[in-house]
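Progress narrative, Year 2. Work on Neurotransmitter-gated ion-channel ligand-binding domain-containing protein from Dreissena polymorpha advanced from sequence curation to structure prediction during this period.
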Amino acid sequence: MLFCLERAGSYKDGFVNVTGSKVLVQPDGNVTWAVPLHINSYCSVDATFFPYDKQMCDIHFGSWIYDISQLEIRTYTESVDLTRFIVNSEFDLTKAEMRQTVEHAGCFPGDGKHSMVHLNLLLRRKTNYYDYIVIAPTINLCVLTLATFLLPCECGWKIAIGLTVFLTLYVLQLLIAENVPDTNSTPLISKYRI
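Result:
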């Protein structure tokens, strides 16, 4: 049975559903098993350089049950077929690589040699939204903050501008908090704004 090691959901969600799938057996003994998959997987997120971050996602496929003497997983090519790739509104797929290996792990049953397929994805966040909604207003508010120091103390607008800038910075901080993914790393933009 084929299994996605970085599955998102219950333990049953990682197994490949083989109901209704067909196997093609060649006269030379090669067996081709083409199974359509829809897998929910997870990747760790490093949001340190948010919104200019890159995410590397490694997904591993293998069998917990059968070792390499019983099941060898092979890929046809080293490249990933992206003909049916659906464009995402938040990330660009920069790189997609696939490779096969033989893992020697003691946690697997059998002799410990298991055939694995590794899928590596490099995702880059699209930054236009954050440039216009977060970065540009933040720079403008910083300039306004400095401009309030140029106003004379007797000017009544000095307090009004200072409070407006403070409240606007608070609203932008809430906007950033809503858009930053949940992770253990703290974005540099949040450190700057604090």
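The CA atoms of residues 125 and 176 lie 15 Å apart. Helices lie at 128-148, 157-179, 188-193.
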